[in-house]
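Instructor's aside before we start: the two examples that follow are unrelated to each other. I chose them only because their records fit on one page, so don't look for a connection. First example below.
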Amino acid sequence: MRSLLIRLCLLVCYFLSVSSALAEEPDYSLLDSASVDNGKIASADERCQECHGADGNIHANNESGKIPKLAGQHPAYLLKQFTDFRSGNRHNDFMAMMARTVDDETAADIFAYYAAQPIMKGDGAGSNALGKKLYLEGDAARQIQACSSCHGVSGKGVASDQPSPIAGLPVELIPVIGGQDWHYLDQQLRDWRDGERTNSTDGVMNKVTAKLTDNEIKALNDYISSL
């Protein structure tokens, strides 16, 4: 009897884990019918604009590095991150709360709205020679991959008609980073390097950033945010 109960418990745990894993996969089809107009209203109603700005370019103090620009970002990427916040695959207490209170259809509308805004852009003032070299060329001797190989030379991503640089990963799930907020970039690169963030495909971002020094991260932030 005890053995049977143990087996039943194991089966229940297995099915719960499978159900949870299935629930964590975003329903990207929602983006096909997403409404930019509804998203504009919802982004205000759900208070997204208070942090990310009406145009997706942040109009709030961001020294904590917690707020990304969303202007022109791939909506599929945003939906994936939203789902990861909800499931705990990506950690941020505030965004986890938002992800649990905003339904997926509304979220898809919001992401369509931000994706429709003019794409984020830096002013070029923070250009950095070391950052540029690392971004465009990487460092083969230290097995540091060039950022541009996935995010594109301008940091605006790979064209949808081009093959993905990461096998099995649609290009829409590789984010726009050129012109992203400096503080946000700094926090994310450090989190990837230190293992605080782990939700990239096959841990690719953890591998890419593992050997970066603090000075190299700063240089990359200067260059990428200027694009």
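Example two begins here.
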Amino acid sequence: MDEYLPSPLPGHQGRKSLQKDSLTCAQVGAALDWSGSKVNRMETGSGRVQPSDVDVLCRFYETTDELREFRKSLARQAKTRSWWQVHGSGELHTCGSYMPPEDIDRAVRVRLERQSMISAPDAPDCWFVVSEGAVRRDMGDRELMRVQLEYVLDAVQRPSVTLQVLPFDAGTCPTTGPFTVLGFPDPEDPDVVYRDGITDAMYLEGEPHVREYNRAFDELRAAALSPRRSMQLINSVMKESTR
């Protein structure tokens, strides 16, 4: 929208209109009675953009009616596509025997990039519940498994990471398959459920979906070992593997 001139900001009447790139997020937010952080999220693509917000912005920047309606339609389409998204060969896989080497490399890079978020200065709070089978099943040789378990033990020392192991004898638990509930600090950004697949990834939105997955996660946490006992189990498995 750089080619359009915005309306004068409050307190700037009579002055020459500023180009968009001369305005800060706080200035735009003040003009629209929004928070500056909301404008920043819209600019960086880190928050949802509603068609109504697009309408307000386009009127603020005095775009043509045709362009305003076109961009509102894009916002509506983006909202529809957010229910699912295909990632192709960059998707994470539980088994790569059917994948060509270059696709396996891409999948590994995606996994490593996701793991790096845990050690970032602004790391999100993460709470994991994993099956005991994931702790005991050898992936590669025993030495590689030991290194992986050591990584887990190191990761849970971070205040933002909590891990529980769901033991074999936990009894009946929700059968959901792997899933992630993504929560955001701003109430304007609703929680989303993410489910991983072999060829695609599904995003479930809406209060009913999120509520049911949160309920399932709470049941899994209640059935799992405490974080302390989970670490004891992992240490025990590591000792067994060195015998």
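Confidence is low (pLDDT under 50) at residues 1-18, 81-90.
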